[in-house]
Amino acid sequence: MTAPKAKRINIIATLAAIAIAALGGAAFVLGGADDSPGLQMIGVVLVVSAGWLAIRTLANSATERT
Fold it and tell me: Which of 24, 47, 59, 65 has the greatest CB tally within 10 Å of its CB?
C-alpha cells in the first residue's frame, strides 16, 4: 500500500473512532437519563470498540513507519 493511501486510511479510522466514542458517550448519558441499562451497555460497548479501533490504528501506523 502506498504511503498517502495508508495515511488517508489512518485518518479515516481515527475520525471513525472519535465519532463512535461520541455516539457511545451520548448513548450512555441518555440511557442514564431514561433509566435504561440496555442503552447504557450499548454506549459502553461503543466506547470500548472505539478505543480498540484507535489502538489498532496507532499500532498499524507505527508498523508502517518502520
Answer: 24
How far is 59 from 2, CA to CA, in rounded Å?
17
Helical H segments across 1-66, by residue range: 3-33, 37-65
Per-residue pLDDT band for 7 (boundaries 50, 70, 90) equals confident
Contact assessment for residue 25 and residue 47, using Cβ atoms and an 8 Å cutoff: yes
> pTM score, two decimals?
0.83
CA–CA separation, 46 vs 18, rounded Å?
11
**How far apart, in Å, are the Cα atoms of 18 and each of 8, 12, 41, 54?**
15, 10, 18, 8
